[in-house]
Amino acid sequence: MKKTNLHEYPYHSRRTAVCASNGMVATSQPLAAQAGLDVLRSGGNAVDAAVAAAACLTVVEPTSNGIGSDAFAIVWYKGRLYGLNASGPSPKAISVDEVKAGGHQEMPRFGWVPVTVPGAPAAWAELSKSFGVLPLQRVMKPAADYAREGFPVSPDTASSWRRAWQTYRRECTGREFAPWFETFAPGGAPPEAGELWRSAGHARTLEELAESSCESFYRGRLAEETARFSRRCGGFLREDDLASFNPIWTEPVGISHRGYTVWELPPNTQGIITLMALRMLQGFDLSGMSIPERRHLQIEAMKLAFSDGLAYITDPSAMEISLDQLLSEQYARKRGSEITDTAMMPEAGSPGPGGTVYLAAADREGTMVSFIQSNYMGFGSGIVVPGTGIALQNRGHTFSLDPAHANVLKPAKRSYHTIIPGFITRGNEAVGPFGVMGGFMQPQGHLQVVMHLLDDGLNPQAALDAPRWQWVTERQILLEPSVPEAVVRDLRSRGHDITVSGQTELFGRGQIILRDPETGVLTGGTEPRTDGTAAAW
Domains in the chain, ordered, with CATH? Predict the structure, then answer.
């Protein structure tokens, strides 16, 4: 990667990246990273470690994901990239008319209406079957143990838990939400930092999933329990919706950048927004520009990419614009020519925060995994299947009820999806997985860490430590307090409506692992904005 004179670069980090040769797991929660590392040390590979960490995160960081999450993965295995889309479709019985008949003029955030078929358990089973070397019971045991025996809640997770509890207490007052409070606020309040939290139902479910290779979730007892609760509460999800679901293997989409290839998954994910913005920026000579000039161009390119992404991305079977059109050099030049020295007002939606976990894993044999799963918007829908610990996502919230919109709600349709894993290669070699979680911040975080790595020559930890920006809507930009004042002044002079925010959760949380192709040495970084760690061996 390009080497930068860090004495001249204002964003270099004083933190140290983690280096190892046998294996590494980087997650937003130390216990989950350690669970993955324990599986590696027990003879598992990077895929086993990723599944172990993912299952564990449903217990130790339930504020962002759960057993009822969706998931996506990019896997490097024996010299090839594989993509997995484990996002579930809407129920077959739902429709715009049905939702509006229920009194909604837009898709609600809470309750059964925004619940789509969860894909995470199917992702764990599919990854384990395709690439893992250990039994799923061994891989998921740490997660079940933490659920049954309890774990001390980490500080950032406790803070998110309390904020979610305050919101759910205000917004989720129906009887269908009672199991959420029984599970996540036992005794009438959320756990504090350092307090032990346990969920016996969660433990039993994880063990049942491991024993059945997750079949129970879709075609067994757990599917029956979920559908029964949905029916009782007036939800649309049924046994047939769960039974007919299978994750989809897909080809990652990549573009060349500075001698590397940056990979994302195709729609229904928003990953191509990162690639569209990166493609536009290739039309500018960034090397001779000041830091403020480069930030302005990045922001403007991201605005344009988002305006297209929010208009066109949905279930690929319903897209009228092809990936080739959106990612073509000709279109990138056309869109890039619209960027001027001042902030523009593109036609776009209003990106906001989300609730997601991202993890990266690598082993000494060269297998590497970029994995992400999410309930969306914190704990998700507020629906927990009684006695199971299964917190269901609310991915249907991103559907439109406008019949003219590409992402309009339809039966058995996958919605625009915010969660995106990333990967970098060079030639025929894996460089490594990267990701930044956080709703509509994710393509923006991907663009920033990729350019810090490939354009600025920062190591993984420094790339994650660098202060971030987030475009919100119109000319509104959020900046972290560590952005130099000179950059703030310059962006304001260009017409950006700047807010400096100390709310770290707004700027995403990422993990990166890179591999030296000559030595096999792994270098990892973990997000400073949360409780994460890169556990190495």
Answer: 1-273+355-467+512-537 (3.60.20.40)
